[in-house]
Amino acid sequence: MKRLAVPILAALSAITLAVSIHYIFVKAPIQYTIMDGRLFQSSLFFNQKIFYFHVAQAFMLFAAVGLAGITSAIFLKTRNPKWDDIAAAAVDVAVLFGAVVLATGSIWAKAAWDVWWNWEPRLTMSLLLWLILVGYALVRKFAGPSADRVAAGMAIFGMVGVPFIYKMVGEDSHPPSGADGVVMNLGAEYKIAFLMSVIAFLLWFVTLTIMRVQTTRAEREARELRERGLDLGVLQ
Amino acid sequence: MALLRQAGRVAWKDLRVELRSKEIVMTMVFFATLLVVIYSFAFPASDIELVRGAVPGMLWVALAFTGTIALGRAFDRERENDTMRALLLSPVPRLAVFLGKAIAMTALILAVAVVCVPLLALWLNAPLFAHPGELALAVVLGAIGIAFIGSVFAATLLKVRSRDVLLPVILYPLLVPLFVAGTKATAALVAEPSNVELAWFWIRFLGIYDAVFLVLSLWTFESLVIE
Amino acid sequence: MNKLIVILILGLSAVAAAQPGSAAQPPQPGSAAQPAPPADQPPPPPAPNDARAACSAAMNADPAFAKSIIATVDAKSDAKILEMHQQAAGQVAENQRHVIYAYAAMWILAAGFVAFMWWRQQALKAELAQLRRDLDAAAKDSK
Fold it and tell me: Of A43, B137, C30, C126, which residue is 20 to 30 A from A138 by alpha carbon distance?
């Protein structure tokens, strides 16, 4: 069962992804509006197709950060390395999602605002969050034997800091998010496409995390075996 | 109450060690002075608008840099003679040890600010004393935040070989909200005309930030620092 | 893509065509949607509805005239809407490039991540096997 989990999940996410691509490019109409006899200003045209993946992966970024923070807290309480493995894996996956969000967002900004980067609050926030995650990865790599504790602390502090970053940057030209934001006001045909892509990326996130957990476990095992070998005097 | 008294004892011990050697305070203040000198070359004091825009950043960058130096050195001192273990073994709760260390750190960072703010006002002609009360509040809250979060991670990194590079790597991303809030509060105070209401928004932000991370630091310190 | 635009054009022109027709219909007297005129104002001249009715009656009397009017309006609004849709199609073609970039960036990053993970897993597997072999050999030797 455990051996099969990754292929099954990967297949499921591939299927849902294909369905969501079908919905995005075939079913959902191109988003533009004609009002008062002229093209409405905020028409996104084909660019709106970026939104489905960009926002869905941003959700997954927050999910990954939340998972890392919570598992780190459990790890500090229980000292069970199993939780630490999950936290490490979640942060690695979050780094990937963060990179994707920044890249797609930047390309969208080029299309919509004609600049790649403009220190707009939401961009700043994603960048800051991503920097915390990269710092976590650095700690993991260079902090030696007590890396797990330092990294767990960083994950918890980072997760708690997210609302502050969110509050700090405020609102600006980024399309609004939250209760009365873009996602909630989507038309039905867009909403289905968006929901499909959220499901696809949720599955994709779970798949990647499980795969990464397996790697972190193997890393831990190798480290323990090496230590045992050193103790026995077999290895140098 | 006993906890606070014990924390006060630990803080007083740290400060007394510091007052005898003056190692951290002197190097920190000297470093901050050098920073201000470099700033005055980079930003001509004659251009008041430029100074108004840049001085909040100067102040908070100076606090961030000197704060990291002080944190690294203060905890190195405990490591050198393995006195951290003695402190942790002593019959006071670990919370008191942590609180004491963080309070001592706050005092050190504030000592830098006390030198840095007048120097910036003197050499760069910055209107930092337009609203002294609000500015002092923002700086104190900022120092508390840096000291508490910094103490948690400096203590956690005590046994890590590359702690000198890792401390800023961990601390700066986590402290960005604090630095931004501090900078924005200062900017609102030195602007012409100054916007005290906006400054208060950021001071409240700093207060909430400090409160949340204070609780989090107290909660995590014990499980993070295990000898 | 083009099919979609054609469908949109057809739909919108149908709406545009339907509007003059519905507006020509005289509103039902006494319907709830019609707000009653305030009492203190002089009653509005009965002209608009009567005039419209008279007008449409006259137009309907000559079917060729009515058709020609509708055709002219249709052609005008069609031309305008077509132009706007062509403009929109231009925009779409232009920013198709950005969508391709975005999707490419996304998949390249994801593929890089998976490739890196796979490579790491293989390396670890080899290392683990090697370590186990060494340890087993050492255990055997000591026996």
Answer: C126
